[in-house]
Amino acid sequence: MRPDSPVQTRDGEALVWTDGACSGNPGPGGWAAIVVPARGTAPVELSGGEPHTTNNRMEYTAALRGLESLPAGSRACIVTDSRLMLDSMTKWIAGWKRRGWKTAGGDTVKNQDLVRALEAEIARHASVRWHWVRGHETGAEHAHKALNDRADRLAVAAARAAAG
User: Fold this and answer.
1) Is 149 labeled as catalytic in the residue annotation?
2) Which of 13, 20, 49, 50 is catalytic?
């Protein structure tokens, strides 16, 4: 696992801080995306939930909804604390496609509806890169990822709301 480091913003690039949460897995779930526009305007908070889902589905949904909120042709960096989502979109997807959406072990890829939707959304943009941060760390020494903590709180609140 590569070390957690502060995300380096690039000119003209929006940051999309994402997180998913689930109470039980499966169970009621929530997702959140905090979009920090490239032009320096105020961050936009997006969130939602589903009554019966998984944490991984909520992680993918957060990234998808964050990217969907950006205009076509945008440059974006998805900031995530989900190694599964990061690895699936940067390492594993090419092999899954080559194998007809099967894993290396021959199983059908889980959540492929969201993976495919996310791949299509990525294609709508000029560039999308990924940055991993360790989640659930707060305090002054982790101030560089306060928006990860905020996305977590929004996702948890959305999961609670989805539970009714």
Assistant:
1) no
2) 20
Tokens read off for 35: 């979009």
Query: How many helices (H) and strands (E) would you count in the chain?
Result: 5, 5
The pairing of strands 13-22 and 44-53 is: unpaired
Burial of 91 (0-12, 13-18, 19+ CB in 10 A): exposed
Is 81 an annotated catalytic residue?
A: yes
Tell me, yes or no, if 136 is annotated catalytic: yes
8/140 Cα distance (integer angstroms): 18
The structure tokens 């791949």 sit at 119
Reply yes or no: is the peptide bond before residue 26 cis, omega within 30 of 0.
yes
Which listed residue (59, 66, 121, 149) is catalytic?
Answer: 59
What predicted TM-score, i.e. pTM, was given to this entire model?
A: 0.93
pLDDT confidence of 8, banded at 50, 70, 90?
A: confident
CA dist 106 and 99 (Å) reads 8
The per-residue pLDDT for range 13-54, each reduced to its tens digit, is 999 999 999 999 999 999 999 999 998 889 999 999 999 999
